[in-house]
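Task 17 of the worksheet. Students: predict the tertiary structure of the chain below and write it out as structure tokens. Keep your answer in the requested format; marks are given for formatting as well as content.
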Amino acid sequence: MKRSCKLIELDEGLNGLFIELLNELHDSGVPFHRNAVFYIDEKNENDIREKLLKDGNKKRLRRILATIIQGKDRPDLYGIEDVSSKTKGIKAMKFTGGDRGNLRIYCKEYLISKQLRIVMVWTHYKKSQRVSGQLKDKIESIGGYEYEF
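Model answer:
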């Protein structure tokens, strides 16, 4: 199933967080291990933006982005959603605690010409550690998405 996604552009609200983070990492001398580019699924764009730009989520988003850009393994922030063989390349940005509940932003990763492309696809408030049958079906369907870059 081909879907459309949008590159996070320099003049968009979300990008302000990305630019600030990159500048901070650069100024602190933190090495970048990944050439990462971020996209948003066009069908779910408004919902994803609304949740990411909430005040309570901005700080956590910065930590998640830093983890990705630095190539660190932090499954508590950004981890594999390995519910079946159909979910290859699916990871979740994890926003937990406080008024955030247990928000997940499910992402699909592509590695193209040594560039990590991460598409933020869908949001979900996870209610338990266990993955329900309905959630598993949704994550598997995301695993089948193909995007035009």
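Marker's comment: The two ends are 14 Å apart (CA to CA). The beta strands are 2-7, 36-41, 78-80, 90-96, 102-112, 115-125, 146-148.
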